[in-house]
Design a protein that fits this description.
Elements (H helix, E strand, L loop, with lengths): L1 H19 L9 H13 L3 H19 L4 H16 L14 E6 L6 H14 L4 E5 L5 H14 L2 E3 L6 H14 L4 E5 L7 H18 L6 E7 L4 H14 L3 E5 L9 H8 L4 E5 L7 E3 L2 H8 L2
Parallel strand pairs: 1-4, 1-5, 2-3, 2-4, 5-6, 6-7
Antiparallel strand pairs: 7-8
Helix pairs in contact: 1-11, 2-3, 3-4, 3-10, 4-11, 5-6, 7-8, 9-10
This protein binds guanosine-5'-diphosphate.
């Protein structure tokens, strides 16, 4: 546990150093707040979250009668942790059998890797998993998913060049017939046009719902933590099209834009089920608001 926290810290330090250095002086004055504002914006926290944090911090500083920058830094950690707290929510499996989890994300976000990691995480918890490779356009995507399935020794349903929604229907039916605990549906990340992509994802959602009237039970979006404010744009667009239930934020082991979680918390608070902190199968961690806030300020 220690090692991933260190990786998160060293990743976020690229952001964090900017925020942390604001507090290396000796005085609490307007300059400090101005520098802090700039540092939060640089870390891609966005205008709304930055203003919220500054107002909240001034109130906390007054209440605590803080006199030293170090104390202000600790109060900022509290303010960020409180802002991020609503994003901290566990992924719950077991209410439905199978629990159908649809996973979306633009190419390169780390979707396939995250599905591999999530499969491992679920299997470690004793759940049986079936993977549905609905990205029928890209042979490479199917092959990569098959490698992950192999590594995790789980079943995979796929079809070359077929209708993605039909693959999902088959997978959910197979998941039911085989008594699986979880069906993980990997969707395409890019189609000829962005509009087309959303249409296809909506279709998959509808067809999954035909195979099981209560499904999908979870709709996850995988986003690259390095994309900054663009991550927020993606959350909004996918949420509007698919009604997201959770996020997986990847590549937080090497980002200078860790403030984007503050923007998400403020503008589109979809729970963060997991964070990716490396390329290996075990590099998936549950999100903890306080740990994250502290890593951001390390
Ligand atoms: P997809 O196109 O969304 O399916 O993306 P992939 O799963 O193929 O991942 C794209 C690249 O990001 C690969 O090189 C992965 O190893 C890398 N990657 C994914 N998640 C993480 C992470 O949490 N940390 C780091 N450092 N790299 C990651």
């Amino acid at each position: 546990r220690e090692s991933w926290l260190n990786r998160l810290k060293s990743g976020l330090r690229r952001t964090g150093s900017g925020i942390a250095t604001v507090f290396t002086g000796t005085r609490i004055d307007e300059d400090l707040y101005e520098e802090l504002e700039a540092a939060l914006l640089m870390a891609d926290s966005g205008v709304s979250a930055t203003q919220h944090l500054l107002t909240d911090l001034r109130r906390r500083v007054k209440e605590a009668k803080a006199t030293e920058p170090a104390a202000v830094k600790a109060l900022l950690a509290d303010a960020i942790a409180d802002l991020l707290k609503p994003l901290q929510k566990p992924l719950v499996i077991g209410e439905h059998k199978p629990t159908v989890i649809m996973v979306a994300g633009v190419n390169g976000a780390g979707k396939t890797t995250s599905i591999g990691k999530l499969t491992r995480h679920l299997a470690d918890d004793g759940a049986s998993v079936l993977l549905a490779a609905a990205d029928t356009f890209r042979a490479a995507a199917r092959e990569q998913l098959a490698v992950w399935a192999d590594r995790n020794t789980v079943d995979i349903v796929t079809q070359e060049g077929g209708d993605p929604a039909a693959v999902c229907f088959d997978a959910v039916s197979a998941g039911k017939a085989r008594g699986k605990d979880v069906v993980l549906v990997d969707t395409a990340g890019r189609l000829p046009t962005q509009l087309h992509l959303m249409e296809e994802l909506r279709k998959i959602r509808r067809v999954v719902n035909k195979a099981d009237a209560s499904a999908p039970h979870e709709v996850l979006l995988v986003i690259d933590g390095n994309t900054g404010q663009n991550a927020l744009t993606q959350v909004k667009a996918f949420d509007e099209a698919l009604q997201l239930t959770g996020l997986i934020i990847t590549k937080l082991d090497g980002t200078a834009k860790g403030g984007v979680l503050c923007a998400i918390a403020r503008e589109r608070p979809v729970p963060v089920y997991f964070i990716g902190v490396g390329e290996k199968l075990e590099d998936l961690e549950t999100f903890d608001a306080r740990e994250y806030a502290q890593a951001l300020l390390s």
